[in-house]
Write a structure and sequence with these properties.
Length: 143
């Protein structure tokens, strides 16, 4: 939005793809009016290069309200489902990593790291693992 210039067009498949809240949508509408840009949201085209009529602006804001409502309903359902799963004793999220889960390539190069022959960056490259993963595995092995 910072680089949008007068006469540009912003295209999104639907309102929920351009904003997460009705307030943000109102800000985008004001930006569109001030910079005289065109908004294409799915099949709904809003040309702000001229005066925006109240019915179009109202429809656009209603689309935003329903989009935010849908997002909030989905969020509430997910939270409810997670609480229900927890109540049934199921664990939520990724299972914790244990020493048995660490790949053998890590253990192959670990002695070189401990002796100071390689640093963490080289260790990461040799194991083909990301830097944060190396840190995680090192904390597991060394604790």
């Amino acid at each position: 939005l910072d680089i949008v210039q007068s006469g540009d067009t912003i295209i999104a498949t639907e309102v929920s793809r351009i904003t997460r809240s009705t307030k943000q949508l109102c800000d985008i509408i004001e930006l569109a009016k001030n910079k005289h840009i065109k908004l294409v949201l799915g099949t709904f085209v809003v040309d702000c290069s001229k005066e925006l009529d109240p019915m179009t602006e109202g429809m656009l804001k209603m689309m935003g309200v329903f989009s935010e409502l849908e997002r909030n309903i989905i969020s509430q359902r997910v939270k409810s489902g997670m609480e229900n799963a927890k109540a049934k004793g199921k664990t939520i999220g990724r299972p914790p990593t244990t020493a048995e889960d660490i790949p053998s390539i890590f253990y192959k190069h670990y002695p070189k790291y401990k002796k100071g022959e390689i640093n963490k960056k080289e260790f990461s490259r040799l194991c083909d693992l990301s830097y944060p993963t190396i840190y995680k595995y090192l904390s597991i092995v060394e604790s």
